[in-house]
Amino acid sequence: MEQDQGNHIRFREVDQDGIPIDQESLAREEGGDPGRPAWASVNPFIVALWLLAALLVIGGVWVSANAASMMGTTSGPPPLAYVLFNFAPWAVLAGLLDALALLFWHALEWQRRKATQPLRTGR
Questions:
Q1: Residue 11's pLDDT is what?
Q2: Tens-digit pLDDT profile for residues 64-108
Q3: Is residue 8 part of a domain?
Q4: How confident is the model at residue 69, as a pLDDT?
Q5: What total of structural domains would you count in the chain?
Q6: Mean pLDDT score across all residues of the chain
Q7: Residue 20 domain-assigned?
Q8: Are the C-beta atoms of residues 91 and 62 closer than 8 Å to each other?
Q9: Is 27 part of a structural domain of the chain?
Q10: What residues make up the domain containing 57?
Q11: Is residue 30 assigned to a domain?
Q12: Where would I find the beta strands (DSSP E) of the chain?
């Protein structure tokens, strides 16, 4: 008994009244765009904060590691290397705190999305 390829079972989303919902209107309601790639929905401010955290940590560690080669004897106002050396530990701390705050933010967003998703049963 051979079956026709057109006789597949197709599942559709329906609303509370049993009316079929097309995927485009469902994505519009949820704030998404069905043709939009997943990377385009990333918050650019969060990306900038992650980059800032990385820059602060890496820059602070680099300045601390190269402090001996950057220092020299000068008279007059303190050189830029001296100022950077004094701010390096604080930059590392600020970068780590920024990363920690972003991790908490991501955890809260994940929890919020998980709470708003409908339960899926194995039926």
A1: 62
A2: 988 777 776 666 667 788 888 899 999 999 999 999 999 999 999
A3: no
A4: 79
A5: 1
A6: 78
A7: yes
A8: no
A9: yes
A10: 13-116
A11: yes
A12: 13-14, 20-21
